[in-house]
Amino acid sequence: MSNQPIRHQTYRIFICTALLIGAVLLPPTIHGEEMNTDPSPPLPLLVRTRHNDTPADIAQRFLNDATKEWMIVEYNGREAFPGGESVMVPVAPFRPGGLTPDGYQTVPVLAYTDIGDSTGQVSRSTFNDQMRWLKTEGFVTITPGQLTDFMEFSGQLPRRSVLITFDTASQSLYTTSIPILKELGFTATVFLSTDSVGRKDAMTWDQIRQSHQDGFTIGCRGRSGRSLTRRTKGQAFETYFKSVESEMRLARHAIEAHVGEPCLFLAYPHGDTNSLVSAMAAKLGFASAFIRRAGDNPFFADRYGIHRTPVDSQVNSEQFAKRLTTIIPADLN
Amino acid sequence: MRPLQPVIAFIAAIILCSCAGTMDSVSEFLSADPQWTAAQAGNLSERARSLEARGELAMALDHWRLVDRIAMDPAAVSREISRLKSKIAEAVNTHYQHGMAELSKNRQAAARNHFLAALRLDPTFRPALIQINARFSPFPLAVHLSTSGDHPETVAKAVFGDEEKAFLVAWFNDLPVDQALTSGTLLILPKLKKRPTKKVRKKKRPDQLAQANALLAENDLDGALTLAGQADPDDPNVKALTHTIHLKKATVQIASGLLEAARQSLDKVPDGFAGKHAAMEALQTALQKQQTTLVLAKAQELFDQGAYRQSLEMVERLLEETPDSVDARNLAIEARYRLALDHFDHRRFLEVREVLEKADEGHEASIALKESVRTQLVNQAQIHYRNGVKHFINEDLKLAISEWEIALACDPNHDKARENIDNARRLLDKIESMP
How confident is the model at residue B8 (pLDDT cuts 50, 70, 90)? Predict the structure, then answer.
């Protein structure tokens, strides 16, 4: 019993020592972030590289996400980091909106209808070649959520970002295209019309759920997939409005019920919209919506009319490359 | 076990530190020495200057702020930070003012670029972001402030020009359609075009010929023709009226693009009847215009497919025939820019310059690209010029000339390259003529 105070004293000494070491060894020279009231954006971390460190290793160690390796590369302006050197690790977007002195970023969005051997479809081998070309050229596939953040001027994207989308929920998408994308570490967005799910040659809800769990985004393309801008002859305006509203709302609810997450992205069926349909998409809670027409997507573009460039069997490799412009030159100095 | 408890507590503290992500910092700090730290401060300062020279002021400032943490001479670094902060603030303000000035001159693209430039330097600069969002970023919803006595119906009438769209006002604002609105309620509404007020047509029914004339005056051509057909066909007044109706019908059909129908209408009008010759000329012009539209549509299709060169060639041929076509000119400008952009992406700067030789001075993106390429080519010219000098020093005159020729191609104003080529050729001639 008489040893008890001494033991407590020993614990206190050890705990104090550990805390002291902690306090002393968290030096500002290594860790750039400060807990102060400075309104400036958070400073990047200044860290020392290890032997054979890759940008992915550094991103994993300090940003807890190896896929953010592009931030290390783009901030430091180099890809190799010999051990023992200092390297800066940005902890916040350093170029929101992709603005550089020479121009502004535009994000190409590719729209595939389906992959297969039918007329007009991109064949499996061509799709494979196109995806491998993207990988070789250093493109990074993004999600529509990342694109929306970028367009809200709150996020930053890799310089060579691309969003890949499909307007189908076919079995061939599940069995041929998705495996190619997964093999390359790519992601994509599948816009489906909910009535087609489970039909012959279409994906089942289980397969859609699985794709979602594999990192693919599931978006909405209406319930029946019919055009939302066409009003049948003699149809009253209010009847037309109600049919459009139910097409979007019911499809969205079906996807959310089956996938278990909010469905925030819409591809207008047939790629068309008008001012009323776009406004309804915004009111119904879609974060962004996509048309099917080639065009640029800088951060200040219309979030409810994001351009998607159609890719079909007529597009050769040269034309494919041309559709992937990522910077619009402008003097922003 | 008890004697080991302090050791266990210490190890646990270390593990906790490690889990909290501090061990990297700890180990790095332990392995850092003053020389290493000083070297890093030097490297960072150098990179900060390089970033500033490239116009990346915000990143340069971040570098200086980090140098401030590890530098031996914090006073000097603080001066750099203050200087750079002032420079950024001044540039942001200048861009914003220039943007507002361009807006007042209705030069939208130039204004937008100034606001973007301000945002690039300071992403937290709200006024520039507000301008970009309000003027250059379309959004399908608008707001409307209700006034005293408003109902969804009155708002629909005021905003859409159609009180039957009251259900839209209600749906977009989660309101009952028959509820009176409190004055000052902020309503969210879709941006729809306001429906024009309907014109009420007045119909008169006097005698047959006069009635047909009245219908003609109201542009009811089919009605007028039916009535004229019921009148005496030998009456010269009826004949003249029938020809006039066919003529007018042809004019309307030409305006609507129904050119074959217009031709048939004109066939029913005898040659020499007043106005037929002018109508025939209008038909010819419309046929030509239709052909232009078809070619333009094909050129647009090629453009949409990314075949910019073919699209440009087609539209330039079209412009030779119809130089006043605004659509053709706009497509040519856009196709030329996209083609140049494609060359630019592949670093084919000479091709960009060639394509943009005919760039429209009013197309700011093309002019910016042209300027950017000019700078790139001047830089490349300098590189080739230096390579030429190296070859010259190594006494390889042919390679030197070849490099200087490339330099001259990149920058036709590179007088030194031109001069050196002449000198080297003279030297080469002398050497070759030596026995």
Answer: low
Q: Note whether A188 and A169 are within 8 A (CB).
A: no
Number of domains in chain B: 4
**Cα–Cα distance measured from residue B185 to residue A131, given in angstroms and rounded to the nearest whole number:** 51
Average pLDDT, chain B: 85
Best mutation target among B18, B31, B66, B130 (most A Cβ atoms within 10 Å) is: B66
The CATH number of the domain where B166 resides is what? 3.10.350
pLDDT digits (tens, 9 = 90+) for B384-410: 999 999 999 988 889 999 999 999 999
Residue B147 C-alpha, separation from nearest chain A C-alpha, in angstroms: 23
Contact A18 B17 (CB under 8 A): yes
DSSP three-state, residue B294: helix
**B96 and B182 co-located in one domain:** no
In this prediction the ipTM stands at 0.86
- A103 DSSP assignment: E
Q: For residues B165 and B161, give the distance between their C-alpha atoms in angstroms, rounded to a whole number.
A: 9
Q: Do B28 and A30 touch (CB under 8 A)?
A: yes
- Residue B196, domain member (yes or no): no
Do residues B79 and B49 lie in contact, with contact meaning Cβ atoms separated by under 8 Å?
Answer: no
Ordered by where they begin, the domains of chain A are 4-92 (no CATH), 100-329 (3.20.20.370)
Minimal Cα–Cα distance from B379 to chain A, Å?
A: 15
Token code pair at residue B29: 């700090």
Which residue range(s) make up the domain with B423? 377-433
Judged by a CB distance cut-off of 8 A, whether residue A102 touches chain B is yes
Nearest by CB to A329, from B25, B28, B372: name it: B372
Same domain flag for B121 and B165: no
The first and second tokens of residue B112, run together, are: 């937008």
B:275-294 residues touching chain A, CB 8 A cutoff = none
Chain A contact probe: residue of B4, B24, B37 with most A CBs at under 10 A: B24
Shortest Cα distance from B154 to chain A (angstroms)? 17
Chain B: closest CA distance from residue A256 (Å): 22
Residue B401 lies in a domain: yes
B72 and B114, same domain (yes or no): yes
Altogether, the residues listed in chain A come to a count of 333
Note the pTM of the prediction, 2 decimals. 0.64
Q: Report the C-alpha gap between B145 and B131 in whole angstroms.
A: 22
Quick: pLDDT tens for B168-206. 999 999 999 888 898 888 999 999 887 776 655 554 445
Any B CB within 8 A of A237 CB: yes
Q: Which residues contact B159 (CB under 8 A, 6 or more apart)?
A: B144, B169, B189, B192, B194
B63 to chain A: which residues are within 8 Å by CB?
A: 88
CB B133 within 8 A of CB B141: no
Closest CB to B365: pick one of A10, A48, A329: A329
